[in-house]
Structure formats: C-alpha cells, structure tokens
Amino acid sequence: MFNWRNLITRGVAGVVYIGILLFGILYNKYSFVVVFGIILVFALDEFYRLIEQKTPHLISKLFNIIFGVVIFLSAYLFLEDKSIIALPISSLTYLLLLFASSIVIKRPDIFNTIIYSIFGQLYITLPLCLLLLISYEYKLVNSLYYYAFVLAIFVFIWVNDTFAFLTGITMGKHKLLERISPKKTIEGFAGGILFTVLSGVGFSFLYTEYTIYFWIGFALIVSLFATLGDLFESLIKRTYNVKDSGNVIPGHGGVLDRIDSLLIVIPAIYVYLLITNSFI
After folding, report:
1. How far apart are alpha carbons 273 and 279 in whole angstroms?
2. Angle subtended by helix axes 126-134 and 61-79, to nearest 10
C-alpha cells in the first residue's frame, strides 16, 4: 500500500530544506555563514558518528566539530579582510593538537583516529570553506558577496539529481556502478548530464557577464562530480552498513546525505573557476 503520509512528509521537509538553503544563499553574506555553519556542524557530527562504528572512542567529536566551525569562520574573516592570520592559525593549531594527541593518548589505534579526524575536515570543512570563497567575487584588495556561482551549483545539482532519477526509472537498463549504487543507471547518468547542461544554457541568459560556453562547462562539471559525490558517500554508507547518515531531515535522512554531491562538486568548480579566470 502506498504511504501518502511518508510522501507528504518527505515533500514538506524537502521544501523547507530548499527554502532554508535559498534564504542562506540569497539574503546576504551573514545568512550564508549562519546557514552553512549549521550545515557544517550537522555534517561533521554525522560523519564522525559513522566512523565511530568501526573506530570506537574516536578523538572527541566535539573537538573536531568546534575546530571545523572555527576554521570555517576564520575563512570568512579572511574574505572580509578582518583577519589574515585567523585561518592559518586555526588550521595549524588543529593539526598540532592532533599530533600532540598521538603522544598523550595511549591507544593502539590512535593513528587511525587521527587520520579519520583529518579526513573529516578535508571531506566536509574544506569544501564548505571553498564554497564560502566561491560566494565572493574575490579580489586581492576588496571582496564582495556574489551568490551567482553558489546558486548555480545548487540548481544544477538539483536538476541533475531530478532528471537522472526520472530518466533512470523510465529508460534505465544498464547499471552505472552496481557494486556501490545498484539503482543508478548509465541512461540516468546521461539524462542528468543533458538536462543540467540545458540548465547551464538557461543561466547564460540570466548572468550574461559570462558566456554560454562558460555556463555549459560549469553545468557539465557539476553534473559529473555530483554523481561522483553521491557515489562516494554511498561507498561510505555501504562500508558502515547504514542506509542514511542521520535522520535530521524527515524522509531524506541526514544532512550529509543531502550535501554528498555538493562536497565533491565544490572543489571541482573551484578549480574550474581558477582555470577559466572567473575570479577577477
């Protein structure tokens, strides 16, 4: 029997989640920092909870989460020209404390816990810091909040996910990578790329300061790496034998489940923007 209640719950939760994201992106730089700072906290908490299933008594989750937030806020202070030393100090202090823990904490698996701690920051905190950088029209002297690229990333990810799903269930016959994600198909993958690229063409009419070729390339990068990000988190969940990273968003799982594509797309887009000299 079809469960309408679950469908409605999932739909309402999805709308609320998208609304919060759009508010964070479109309102101003302060809403951006607050919304994505909260997302960072939830995502780090979910990641370290997963890791603790096979590495019990990981180095304090609270320690890792606090430093993740401090590093994120330090990146904001750097972009606002309020402190150029906060970011290197917070990052290096985090590393130094982790190195010190290998001497102070007497545990046979201490190096595993250090590696997992650092990987959590590389996987989640670093991309969100890069997203913060992407949200600025970055200049050497003055930086201005500019949300077009961030908005494009989210729109393209949503388009890719939606049409990959629709194309997959209607036309999908060949598995993309069955050992990691049995439901993904090559046809769905191709459909997601096609409609995301078409969305890129649409963005070229909204933000005409960049060429249509720039937006097509942007959309293509998002589509390719969004799929990679989704597959990578699926691999993590399969490794730890869980369906969702958490249950914060009713019907959708955890925050990490919602931003898995984003975390891999951001570094790829950052490299793309550097290559195309889109940071003036």
Report:
1. 7
2. 20
State yes or no: pLDDT of 57 exceeds 80.
no
Cβ contact 213:235 at 8 Å = no
Q: What dihedral do alpha carbons 39, 203, 230, 263 form, nearest 10°? A: -40
Q: How far is CA 198 from the centre of its chain?
A: 23
pTM score of the predicted model = 0.88
Q: Render pLDDT for 81-96 as a digit per residue (tens, 0 to 9).
A: 888 899 999 999 999 9
- Which amino acid, 103? I
Question: Are 120 and 66 a contacting pair, CB within 8 Å?
Answer: no
Average pLDDT over residues 137-163: 80
Q: If you search the block for the tokens 């890791």, which residue do you land on?
A: 51
Q: Residue 101 burial (CB < 10 Å; 0-12/13-18/19+)?
A: middle
Q: Which of 98, 124, 123 is nearest to 110 (CA)?
A: 98
Q: Are 90 and 70 in contact (CB under 8 A)?
A: yes
